[in-house]
Structure formats: C-alpha cells, structure tokens
Write a structure and sequence with these properties.
The complex is a heterodimer. By secondary structure, chain A is α/β, with parallel strands linked by helices. Chain A has 22 helices and 20 strands. Chain A folds into three domains: 138 residues, Rossmann fold; 143 residues, 2-Layer Sandwich (Alpha-Beta Plaits), CATH 3.30.70; 246 residues, TIM Barrel. In chain A, helix 7 crosses helix 8, helix 8 runs antiparallel to helix 9 and helix 13 packs parallel to helix 15. The relative contact order of chain A is 0.05. By secondary structure, chain B is mainly α. Chain B has one domain: Four Helix Bundle (Hemerythrin (Met), subunit A), CATH 1.20.120. Chain B has seven helices and no strands. The chains are: A alpha/beta, B mainly alpha. Chains A and B meet through helix 1 of A and helix 3 and helix 5 of B.
Chain lengths: 561, 113
C-alpha cells in the first residue's frame, strides 16, 4: 500500500543538527539517497535555518550536546513555535535520562549513538515523516474550517466508532437547521452568515459540553449531533435554539430541530441522520413548532412522497393528471352569472388512486417539479378554451395557477405567449393566479414579472390573500387586477365576527385599489348572502359547483347560456 | 596511508564502521583519517590539566561520538569511560586516564600516517 502513496515521488527535506563534521558526513551519506539533507552545526544555526525555511522540513534529526545552543533548548523552542511545532524531531542520544526529558519536550523518537544501522535510521525517518504527514492531513480534513466542528466524513467515522465501542446505551441523532439561512446570507452578507454558523457551532459545543455527544456541520447551515439518549437530549438542543434566537433579534434566526430518538443501530449512520433530517424538514416554515421527532408515520409519508416524485413524469405522459374547472359567479345582479373559472389539477394514479392535491402540490412546489405540472395545465386549459370556442361558441376566461418557481423561469413569459399564439387565444382568455407568498420570497422579481405580464395584457389575480405574511406595502407595490380572499375567511364567516371585520377590511382595500374581490370556498346560501351584503361580487365554491371535468363544465356553461 | 587492514590491526570493528558508511570504504577511510585531526584531544588534555571538568566532558563526549560511529573500539572504549566519569563529575585520576587515551591516540596517529 505504501508504494501507492501519491506523495512518494517527492523528496522530503531533513535537517541534521550535529556539531561534529564526521557524524554529519556519516548521516548525510545514509540519508542523501532518499532525502534532501540540510545541516546545522549547533542549535542557533538550526533555529535560523528553520525560521528561514519553516515548514520546508519534514523532519529534524537532533544531537543534544552542542555548543552555543544545545539540543534541549532547540527542541523546546521548536515545540513552542506555532509555525514549527508540527515538524517532528528525532533526538540522537545514547543516554536514557536524556530520552525521558526529550519525550517530555516533544521529541517523537530516538536514534541511538553510536548510530543504529543505516536501514534502521532510514526506517525511523520514513515512518516518522509518514505518521506526521498523515496526522496533518487527518487534522485538516477532520474539522470544518469555519466552525471547528467535525467535518461530515469524520463525524460519520466517529459515529461508527462510538457504536462499535459502546454497544449498550441508546443514542439520538439530532439535526439542527437554520431556517431561511440563504435569506440571511443575502440580506446581511456572507460574512454575517458565516458568523452566525460559527456562533451556532459555539453554542452546540458549550451546551453539549460534558455530555456524551459529537457534532459536525454537515453542509451549509445544517448541523448533526450524535448523543447518548437521555430525557434532556431535546432540552439541550432547544437551549441552543433559544440562545441563538435571543442573540440574533434583528436577523430573526430560527433553528429547526429534527430528532430521531433511540436510533436503530442496524441501519447505517447516514440513514439515521436522513431520518432526523426528515423530521427537521417537516417543520420547515412552520414558526409554531420548534422541533419534530422522527416517527414511522413520517417514514411512511416520506416513502409516499418519494413515490409521487418518481411518478410525476410518467403521470404526465400517461395523462393521469386531469384538469378540473370550478366556475366563478358574478353575483352583483339579481341572477348569478358565470363569469369565469379556475383550473384545478387532479391526479388519478393507477395504483395509489386519487392523490389529494394537498399531498402533491406543496411537495412539487418545494422541489420545483410544480413547473412541469403548471405547464401541463396551461396547455390543457388553452386547448379546452380553444375547443369550447370552436365547438360550442362559448368564450369563458379561465384562471390558471402560477407557482413561485415559474416566476424565476426565464422563459416563463415566452411560454405563455407561445401558448396563446398556438391556440389563437388572447390575454383575455387566460387569467393568472399568483399566490401572495411569492411576494415575501423575492418581491423585486415578482413585481418585475407581473408588471411585464400586465403590459402584455394579462390579468393578475392575487391568490390566498390574507393567508400568509402579506403586507399592505405589497399591495401598493405589486400591480394586481383581482384579490382572491383566502378561503379561511369565508369558512369562519358565520362563526366568527372577527372574520367579518377582516372581510370588511379586505373589501375596503379592494375598493381603494379599485379591484374586485373573489371569495373562494363558498358552500351555502348564508355565506353567499353575507358576502353579497359585504360587497363581494365574485363567488367560487361548492354552493355553485364543485370543480368538475371539462365535459361537465361545458354542460354547466351551456345551461348558463 | 590508512587502510582497512591497519584499522583492523589497531582493533577497530571495521565491519560495523563500514556498514555505517553504507559500505563506502573510501568514505570510511577518509572519515577515520579525519578523526585523527580532532582538536578535542588537545582540548581534553589541557582542560583536565586546568581541572575544568565540565568543559572536559564536552570534549570527551564529542570524541566519544565520533570514534563510536567509526567503530574505532580501543579509543571509543576509553573515551566512554572518561565521558561517563566526567558527566557524573565523579572524582577520579583524570590525568592518568587522559595519558592512557593519548597513548592510544598516538598509536592511532601512527597508523594514519
């Protein structure tokens, strides 16, 4: 194996410190076929050389009794010097007492005097250099340079060792993740982001001090902790969370904690942390929960999600996805009149059956796959509108959802324009629903895209208004044509006066902006009449119709006409 | 001129000395001849005369190292003896010891001619 060390072709440099010329010549003759050799006649000369060439030396062979500065003094100086202390020193001596003193002062090995046989000297030099080089490589890869915690690879090595040495106690795998770290980096700069990571690491170190635990920075803003299971494992992690939150007011740092308790040691270490990470990711964006534990249910859910992810393309190709339409009615007149519709996607999976949109839409929104579905829906909707015009002479605008990720797609606008052109439609035919949470993610980009879309003639509907973290400021900045009130307001309308007040406020805002309000999720006559009284003019919900397939929808349209 | 045979005859363990020189006979003989010129012999003589045992130890120690490595046993053995006595500052008849060493040194010089 040694033969294959990639550095074996390099000639290492050895410094021989010896006052007698004859001895230097003997050593030089032994070492020079293998090593570059430099000589010093005493400690002072050696100290100078070491300072001039620093870590250029792989090893120092040191005589002890020399004039000007002896070997003992030089050894001490080397080991007290930060730049030089990593150079190994082999002492050449025949006295046992001196050996003890030198070991204490950091000598790594000894060469006897009179000298050992050349083979022995060469072997000792070679092994010492190898050992120190390996040690320095290990040291450099063992730790994460930013935080000083273990690097991920080393961490998993130590996890394996802990398991093999320590069979009895049960262990916990804990994952800590800084919520929205990317945003912190963007808003406060990378330097501040790095500071935050270092500080988090420091807290982990201090809180876990004295407990049986090891920690690493696994990647970016994710930390792994492997610790002995106890009643307080979670408390310690939460102490890190609390302290971090308390010192980072301005940045509003939140640490997400995922725990896989009493790990199953039959599964590999990486998978244990995948499980803790799964729990950790489960509470992403949920500010009401500070930690989550891994459970079998969570595991099943993740398997289910993996299945959905792997089946999406097949599903699109086999047309397992169907577009349903839910009509929106204008109730401003005496008789409600169908005004437009919203396209909604449904997935009829051949094996899993009907997959709830609540299961696959947030999932695909998170991993970006939603763009494929959105594109699919847009195409289907455009084709339907064309068909209805041609076959039934019916022109009804349909709103389609535009996800946050679509906004970042550089070809987004071109795609929409091509769609209209290919189906000979206009911007009047397709309405765009953008969820308000897209604003909090990247307001500038969203404003830029919506402004451009409106210039082209598209109508923009703000979806789920009031559900997330929308600000009134957003409404002044973001050009929109319709507000779609979040359906929770409607659901609570009859039980909660606060919801009524909030709907009144939304209506005021809409009047101020001179845009209509769509109420979603309207299920009964009572809700309808309250909304009408509050000034809401467009209604969508089961009261009029549930979302239906295209053929049923066209039947509704025909009934209308 | 110094030869391996002369060294052997003198009592040196030339096999060991040569091994330490990686079998390089020319180097071994050159270094063995150089050893005859070590100034520490005269230093040792005068330091013992002056009773400067500490400095005398350094001189003896240096010589011991050189003759040990060259495996020139008769001188090496005597240098070992005096070095250890001087190291522990044991009272001894150092002058006689030096006279004895110089006798062997003179003999060594003669084979180096």
């Amino acid at each position: 194996m040694d033969k294959f060390r990639i550095t074996s072709g390099l000639r290492r440099r050895i410094l021989v410190v010896e006052d007698e010329l004859i001895n230097r010549e003997i050593l030089g003759n032994i070492l020079s076929p293998v090593y570059e050799t430099a000589f010093a006649e005493n400690g002072q000369e050696a100290w100078q050389l070491l300072h001039d060439e620093g870590d250029g030396f792989s090893l120092v062979l040191l005589d002890l009794i020399m004039p000007l500065m002896d070997g003992f003094e030089l050894l001490k100086k080397i080991k007290n010097d930060d730049a030089l202390k990593s150079i190994p020193v082999i002492v050449m001596t025949s006295e046992k007492e001196a050996e003890v003193q030198c070991i204490r002062n950091g000598a790594v090995d000894f060469i006897k005097k009179p000298y050992d046989m050349p083979e022995v000297i060469l072997a000792r030099c070679e092994r010492t250099i190898e050992l120190y080089e390996d040690k320095s490589i290990i040291r450099s890869v063992e730790r994460d340079s930013l935080t000083g915690l273990y690097s991920k690879d080393m961490f998993f090595e130590y996890v394996k060792r802990i398991d093999s040495y320590n069979m009895s106690p049960s262990m916990d795998a804990i994952v800590l993740d800084i919520e929205h770290f990317r945003l912190i980096n963007e808003m406060f700069g990378r330097k501040e982001g790095d500071k935050l990571l270092s500080f988090t690491a420091e807290l982990i170190r201090s809180e876990y001090e004295g407990t049986a635990a090891i920690a690493c920075r696994a990647e970016g803003d994710t930390f792994f902790i492997y610790c002995e299971h106890s009643d307080v494992s979670i408390d310690i992690a939460m102490a890190v969370q609390t302290k971090l939150a308390s010192v980072s007011d301005e940045k509003k740092v939140k640490l997400r904690i995922g725990i896989y308790e009493n790990v199953d040691k039959n599964i590999d270490a990486e998978t244990r942390f995948d499980r803790a990470k799964l729990a950790c990711d489960r509470i992403r964006g949920d500010y009401s929960k500070s930690f989550a534990c891994y459970s079998d249910e969570l595991h099943q859910r993740s398997i289910y999600q993996e299945r959905l992810i792997s089946d999406i393309d097949k599903g699109i190709a086999r047309e397992e996805f169907q577009v349903f339409f839910q009509p929106k009615y204008d109730i401003s007149g005496d008789v409600p009149r169908m005004k437009s519709a919203e396209a909604l996607i449904r997935w009829f999976h051949p094996e899993l059956g009907r997959v709830s949109p609540g299961d696959f839409i947030p999932l695909f929104e998170n991993n970006g796959l939603i763009t494929r579905l959105d594109n699919y829906v847009w195409n289907k909707v455009a084709a339907c509108i064309r068909e209805w015009k041609d076959r039934y002479g019916i022109s009804i605008p349909v709103s389609v959802n535009v996800s946050r990720v679509d906004i970042y797609d550089p070809s987004f606008e071109d795609k929409l324009m091509t769609l209209l052109r290919d189906n000979s439609l206009s911007t009047e035919d397709i309405l765009l629903e953008i969820t308000e949470s897209a604003y909090s993610e990247n307001a500038k980009k969203l404003i830029e895209v919506t402004t451009s879309l409106r210039k082209r003639g598209f109508k923009i509907e703000m979806d789920d208004f009031g559900a997330g973290y929308s600000s009134l400021h957003m409404l002044t900045e973001l050009p929109i044509d319709v507000i779609k009130m979040d359906m929770k307001f409607v659901q609570n309308l009859e039980k909660d006066e606060k919801s009524v007040r909030l709907i009144e406020l939304i209506m005021d805002i809409a009047r101020f902006l001179q845009v209509p309000v769509v109420a979603e999720g309207v299920e009964n006559e009572g809700q309808l009449s309250r909304l009408k009284a509050l000034g809401c003019t467009i209604i969508q919900g089961f009261y009029f119709s549930k979302p239906v397939p295209a053929d049923e929808f066209i039947a509704l349209c025909e009934k209308r006409s | 001129m110094l030869t391996i045979e002369k060294l052997k005859e003198y009592g040196a363990d030339t096999d060991e000395g040569l091994k330490r020189c990686m079998g390089n006979e020319a180097l071994y003989l050159r270094l063995a001849a150089m050893a005859d010129q070590q100034p520490e012999f005269q230093e040792l003589e005068s330091l013992i005369k002056d009773n400067d045992l500490k400095s005398a130890f350094h001189a003896a120690h240096s010589l011991k190292g050189v003759f040990g490595n060259l495996a020139i046993t008769p001188l090496y053995d005597r240098l070992c003896e005096i070095t250890e006595l001087l190291r522990s500052e044991t009272p001894a008849d150092y002058e006689s010891l030096v006279i004895d060493i110089m006798k062997f040194k003179d003999k060594y010089s003669s084979i180096c001619q």
